[in-house]
Amino acid sequence: MKLGISTGPISNTTVTPWELSWDELCEILRDRRVGDKNGSYFTVCTFKADHRNGDNIIYPLQGFVLDGDSTIDLDTGELREGAPPPEYVHEALVELDINHLIYTSHSHGTKGSRYRVFVPVEIATTEEHAACVDWMIDQLHQKQVMIANVTENSTISQGWYLPRIADESTPFQFHEYSESDMPLCAAEPLDWYREQQKELEMLMPEPSGVPRELDPSKPIDKFCMDHGIDYVVELLQEHGYVYRHTSNINGHKSYHLMAPNSSSGSAGVNVYLGRDNGKVLIYSHHGEHCAIKAATHG
């Protein structure tokens, strides 16, 4: 497989091609070393001119990574620091017969469980990457492994640190499974993803009125002009909304979040850009427990 490798730190955007076998990758990622967190890292892709940038990604990718960072509380729907134990993810993926490896990160044990899950699969497009990430999160949730889908999962150019520990007493785990006779193919997640998109489109409200340009003299318009969609998503997360996955609405990246105290566990809040003027829009099809639903009546 061909990945990308950098000597680090993360601010160093020079990433060179890294060709190695599955066994070689496992050997490297199970080799914990004492050192600072911000050091060498790998990427799931290579880049034009060896410069790590979202515009320089070379397809196909050789896999995707889930960042084990936090957990969705099944009782409250709130985000809890620390991911589900890595062995839970490993057991679920073995049951699903999906090849993978898991290694814990520098902060593992100090802030609960922290780890990276790498799944090998050939990915030809941005849509296939989004589909694989969202499908995998959904598969784990069906197994009651409520790992939160964080924004890093959707960033193809994300750098993932090689395993390092603060000192020899730091806990470290490595899990690996490569016995599947049917390696994951992006086609299944992509079919699932597109079905989810169709259902979402049926839920989205139709645009009404005559499209207009944003007016900076109006406070809400000015807010949308000064703060992009990522800021709005971060603001919602600060108020207890849980990021679940991304999709494409009106030709732009959109975000799906779950409201605090959601009983269904569904990502019922959609943050997206308007079809004609690029305005940041928020729509909720949660119940009245969702503050956005209550404030806007849907």
Distance from N terminus to C terminus (CA atoms, Å) equals 47 Å
Shape category: globular
Question: Could you give the order of strands across the largest sheet?
Answer: 2-1-4-12
- Percent of residues in helices comes to 25-40%
Secondary structural class: alpha+beta
**How many beta strands in the DSSP annotation?**
18
Using the CA coordinates, give the radius of gyration: 20 Å
- Average pLDDT metric: 85
Q: Specify the number of helices.
A: 7
β-sheet strand percentage: 25-35%
* Overall domain count: 2
- Give the assembly state of these chains: single chain
3D architecture notes:
Helix 3 packs across helix 4. A hairpin with a 6-residue loop joins strand 17 (269-273) and strand 18. This protein starts with a strand and ends with a helix. It contains 7 helices and 18 strands. The chain folds into 2 domains: 2-189, no CATH class; 204-296, no CATH class. The longest helix is centred in the middle third of the chain and has 17 residues, at 126-142. The chain has 298 residues and is an alpha+beta fold.
Features:
2 domains; 27% strand; four-stranded antiparallel sheet; 298 residues; alpha+beta
Topology:
Layout (H helix, E strand, L loop, with lengths): L1 E5 L9 E4 L2 H8 L3 E2 L6 E3 L2 E2 L9 E2 L2 E8 L1 E3 L6 E3 L4 H10 L4 E5 L10 E9 L2 H17 L17 E2 L2 E2 L8 E4 L9 H17 L15 H8 L2 H10 L3 E8 L2 E7 L10 E5 L6 E5 L6 H6 L2
Parallel strand pairs: 3-13
Antiparallel strand pairs: 1-2, 1-4, 4-12, 5-6, 7-11, 8-9, 10-11, 10-14, 15-16, 16-17, 17-18
Helix pairs in contact: 3-4
